[in-house]
User: What shape does this take?
Amino acid sequence: MIPLFHDFDGETVVVFGGGSVGARKARRFAREASVVVVGPALPADDYGGAETVRAAPDPDDVPGWFDRTEPALAVAATDVEAVNEAVAAAAANRGVLVNRADRAGGRDAGSVVVPATVRDGDVAVAVSTGGQSPALARELRKRIEAEIDGAGELAAATAATRAELKSRGVAPDRRRDAVRAAVRSPRVWKDLGAGGTKPRRTVDAVVESVLGETE
Assistant: This one.
């Protein structure tokens, strides 16, 4: 499998199964997509603001839910194998991505594995074991969290610096060298989280130092 980031803004995700797994999937996708959860029981307290529909679709009913919701992604998270198979089949027939929450390891074409994700601002790191060891993915996520602390702030600072250097007419290769020096600088990482303009000032100082060396 090849990892990709997918923009679900303005899209719909339909989750079949309202249990704890379905609720977790709903919360994950509700940060961006419109989510519809369909299940005979909805015991979870938090579906992330998703629309919930109390229904117990049998395999023959599944295509109708696809027609009603027109999803970009379908999640099969019921405890009925026949329903999950029907979700996968309907998704394949319509060219819709599918996440089989009931299956680990081998995946069918067009299937999606939802990775463990660490976020800091606009910086996101996704970890996947191909569905074989969710426990390992969660452990790796915990280890990565500390490593990227402040990365979102640094991404914003270097984006602003790149734009400024471009407006000044600095050549692309010199811009790349300067920004790379900033993201590798221990000084910059130390100042992240200090608040105010200090991190940006440190980035600018490192960048200007590099530009001065190359003139």
About this structure: The first strand starts at residue 12 and ends at 16. The mean pLDDT is 91.
